[in-house]
Specification:
By secondary structure, the protein is mainly alpha-helical. Helices cover 62% and strands 2% of the residues. A two-stranded antiparallel ribbon has the order 1-2. Helix 3 crosses helix 7 and helix 9 packs across helix 12.
Length: 269
């Protein structure tokens, strides 16, 4: 799935926008999409004037109940928001320089509190803790933090046999793609490669060659770890084999992880 399908995927997972934040999320995505050629995003966006940047801060901070798409009907604000959407992700220093210059210039109507508040919004997108490469191997990028935390919580300190069983359950449930490299799993969860390979192969490849007694023992272990995994992450699997997460709210961290998953390759970070 690429960024062109992101809007549809958001709607499928979380429904129609229910508040201003979600509307703003979708609008900023649409601005990025305008500069996406199918392979990468054009980052050569013209820098807005200091006046336009200041006007955008006033608009966003003074009219917090007005969707940004409405505010962006003014061309200078739209241009500034696009610049922030595209350059703010990997070039936070540029945003910081503009805001510092605004503070020095003492623009009429712009308080230091407004500037710092706006800078905090940008910093939230730019400096959010970056997901590991694990995010590239889950079909549920918006739930990355729950998946990442749940897996680490369960695997930390476990015997490689149990770690392999937990990861097997995650793949079998559809939480992780079957194509996830073993080397990535070893690095992600700090596992010993030889031991992990041995046990992972048992669950994922060689179980059919085991005796009935061993198979039954393994089935019980998998059943136990699957239940623990679903509780830790907060999901279940329906009779139609569809994964359902209990928390379907499109929060800030969920949104950011989804953006990073879809844009990592096209922004090359």
């Amino acid at each position: 799935m690429n960024i062109n399908e992101l809007g549809e995927d958001l709607e499928q997972q979380f429904g129609k926008p229910r508040n201003i934040t979600e509307e703003n999320v979708r609008f900023m995505l649409s601005l990025i999409k305008e500069e996406f050629d199918g392979t990468k995003v054009n980052e050569n966006i013209e820098k807005p004037s200091l006046e336009a940047f200041g006007m955008t801060i006033i608009a966003v901070m003074s009219y917090q109940t007005t969707p940004w798409e409405e505010l962006a009907k003014k061309p200078s604000i739209r241009k500034t928001l696009k610049y922030i959407a595209i350059r703010g992700n990997c070039h936070y220093d540029e945003m910081e320089a503009l805001t510092k210059e605004l503070i020095r210039k003492h623009f009429y109507g712009i308080t230091q509190k407004m500037v710092l508040g706006f800078l905090k919004i940008i910093r939230g997108v730019s400096n959010e803790e970056r997901p590991t490469k694990l995010i590239e191997y889950t079909p549920f990028a918006a739930q990355y933090y729950a998946i990442h935390y749940g897996l680490h919580q369960l695997i930390r300190g476990e015997h490689p046999d149990d770690a392999a069983a937990i990861i097997h359950c995650a793949i079998e449930d559809g939480i992780l793609f079957p194509t996830i490299p073993r080397s990535l799993l070893v690095d992600e969860f700090n596992l010993k490669k030889s031991s992990f390979d041995k046990y992972f192969s048992k669950y994922h490849i060689n179980l059919k060659y085991e005796s009935d007694a061993v198979k039954k023992q393994v089935e019980e272990k998998i059943k136990y770890h699957r239940r623990s995994l679903r509780n830790a992450i907060g999901y279940n699997v329906t009779n139609e084999n569809k994964v359902h997460f209990y928390d379907r709210k499109l929060g800030r961290k969920n949104f950011l992880s989804m953006i990073i998953a879809y844009c990592r390759s096209i922004f090359r970070f």
